[in-house]
Amino acid sequence: MKKVNKAAIASLVLTLTTGVLLTGCGNNGDKNAAASHAPEDNNAPKEKVVLDFWTFWGSETRRPLIEKIIDDFNKAHEGKIEVKHSYYPYGDIWTKALAQTAAGNPPDVIVNSIEEAGLRAAKKQNTNLAEFLAKDPDVKDRFREDLWNTVLYKDDPYALPFTTDTRMMFYNKTAFKEAGLDPDKFPATWDELEQVAMKLDKKDAKGKYTQIGYAPQFAGFDAKSIAVNFDGGNGWLDDNGKANISTPNKIEGFNYVQRYTDRLGQKTIDEFKAAFGSKEANPFIAGKVAIWPDAVTFATQIRDFGKGMDVGIAPIPETKPGAGHWSAGGGFVVEIPAGAKHPAESWEFIKYLTDTAAQTYWAKMNYDNVANVQASNDPELIKDPIYKASVDNLTNTRVYPRPAAAADLFKMLDPQVDAILQKKVTPQEGLDQAQKDISDLIAQNGG
Amino acid sequence: MSLERKDALWGYVFVLPWIVGFLVFTFGPLLFSLYASFTNYDITSQMDWVGIRNYRNMFTHDSLFWKSLHNTLYYVLFNVPLTTFAALLLAVTMNQKIPGMRIFRTVFYLPSVLAGVAVFYLWMMLLNPSTGLVNMALGWVGIDGPAWMTDPNWTKPAVILMKLWGAGGGMLLYLAALQGVPEHLYEAAELDGASPIRRFWHVTVPMITPVIFFELVTNLIGAFQIFQEGYVMVQDQSTPGSPMNSLLFFNLHMFLKAFQSFQMGYATAMAWFLFIVVIVLTLINMALSKLWVHYEGGDNR
């Protein structure tokens, strides 16, 4: 029995020590990693600081661009700051960063959505940049005012805007000519657009649609955006953060969308939608849909996959002359997650990312609308008529921030919108319900 | 110390690493989430005690909670009996002694081996209303198939249909059980003049009830955990659960609450609610099993 016990004890000790070692290693590993990452920490400030920069730009077009920008920064800060690029897929990146932030080991700089910069600030997920801005007050003047406002929380900035975007109407000039329309004149109002759209519809011998002129159900300016356009560009929340949903103008916007559903039939719309592809099979590029609202970066798709297409671009229509060609935009900011170890160096880096040189390069190579006003008005860039049109369109474009109290806004609104579009409820009923749900939500969250 | 107690002690000492592992990595987080469900925990900025507010809001202020619960129950109600039955049917068919049966078994088991998201994309193609194989086949018999994944009335049936495809996993268990049914029982029944259907109902089914029971319990628990389908099989990737939240399953709603609205406290309260529902259903299942599950080895199992 004694022998057995000895063996037992031996193996037990082995198991336990392995366990301890493994868990111990885990901890030490972390410390070591952190240490080797930044051995210089506070005690040796002269040594090089390594920053971990997270983006979701991993595609073959975007990755080389951001890495070139990083490279230039690294060369200019040789021996002082070195930025490392980490790519994580879109969506995953923020869940992962959130977990790392909660665990006290966040990335140094991250690209995140512009609409929720204030929400993240309220949740203490990013770093207050006020003290850095106080030293570099000019940085603020780089950006359009409404973009700058999106990064403020209680009057302090928590991020710097990097890119923005805007939606416009792309149209197929060849299809316009075939239908006997003037290819250089795009309808200015929604009613005119509907007339033009009908002329662009094509059916086969059996009466099935082979080409649809325009349907609001497709592409990048959806029924919700149309409703906001109809409502003079006023979003789903008013300036005080209260629900602003069931307004007569927004209801009118949905009525407009339903005119298309009635004319084309839900089934036609569904079938068209289900067959949509990307690249060459994009319905606009493939000639299935003649008018296609989308973010202006869609122009790169046409450039790459729609060789030889004759395409025009025009602002989003308005309800009546003078009502405003309101468009919606989004974008991304660069920010320093809360608890990051080198905020001063990170500030240097995000300042550089939003400065004219880096922004001009990004805009040129990517066709993106950048946040830096000087960069987006670069003389060489605005030689391109489409890019120029997009920059001009920014004055009609609004970005709608989502505050903490209404974080679930669209989860409440979207099903009502779906129900309206599927004609299960009237626009009035659906929006009234959403108004009630979202007011309740905001009240629950103390907004 | 007696020898027996000494041995028992050594036994415990040996399983200690796993007990510690369970306490630290499973039971600890479980308790933490129970505590978090009574707070306004948002992962980064706050964790204040709010009493039962999360639970109260869940029942009185969150229409999506009921919607997602309804979606999940709908799925469970159809999915569990259908897959259990389909797997059993498949196993009985695959239990015939004819040449080439191994190939058929492999073919039917294959879908259970394929990885999740790829299968979802495959099915989104199959269910395409105009070009998909499913509607094409329905067209041959004169049925004008629905817009499966875009019509909110058809999204859940579409997912249930897709899940039936994976019945091969359950089939394997039934097949093993079927082969364990002693031949002499069939012979005796046959001598007594029992028809094949009666032989199936009175010999086969009772003999494999433990496996049916096992399948039922695990399928039920698995079905309540449905999540990915609503997250991935949507027309618009930016609105999980669409159209009209028809695929907003309970766990999906919970996930979105936790990681998009940062209401982790609320999400943990939802998790505990689901946990209790599943526990209660499983206990009922266990209690009912005494009435119909037959264990060959005796009653004290």
Automatic annotation (TrEMBL), chain A:
Top-level taxon of origin: Bacteria
Against Gene3D superfamilies, the record matches this protein to: Periplasmic binding protein-like II (3.40.190.10)
Instruction: Name the UniProt key words of this record, in alphabetical order.
Output: Signal, Sugar transport, Transport
Q: Supply the CDD domains for this chain.
A: PBP2_UgpB (cd14748)
- Annotated signal sequence range: 1-22
Q: Which PROSITE patterns match?
A: PROKAR_LIPOPROTEIN
Please tell me whether the keyword Membrane is annotated for this protein: no
Concerning InterPro entries, the annotation shows: Bact_solute-bd_prot1, SBP
Xref: Pfam families: SBP_bac_1 (PF01547)
Nucleus: present as a keyword of the record?
Answer: no
What's this protein's name?
A: Multiple sugar transport system substrate-binding protein
Q: What is the lineage of its organism?
A: Bacteria, Bacillati, Bacillota, Bacilli, Bacillales
Automatic annotation (TrEMBL), chain B:
Extract the PANTHER family matched here: ABC TRANSPORTER PERMEASE PROTEIN, ABC TRANSPORTER PERMEASE PROTEIN YESP-RELATED
Gene Ontology terms, cellular component aspect?
A: plasma membrane
Question: Any transmembrane segments, and where?
Answer: 12-38, 73-94, 106-126, 158-178, 199-222, 271-293
Report whether Cell membrane shows up as a keyword of the record.
yes
Where found in the cell? Cell membrane
- Name of this protein: Multiple sugar transport system permease protein
Q: Which part of the chain is the ABC transmembrane type-1 domain?
A: 69-285
Organism whose genome encodes this protein: Paenibacillus catalpae
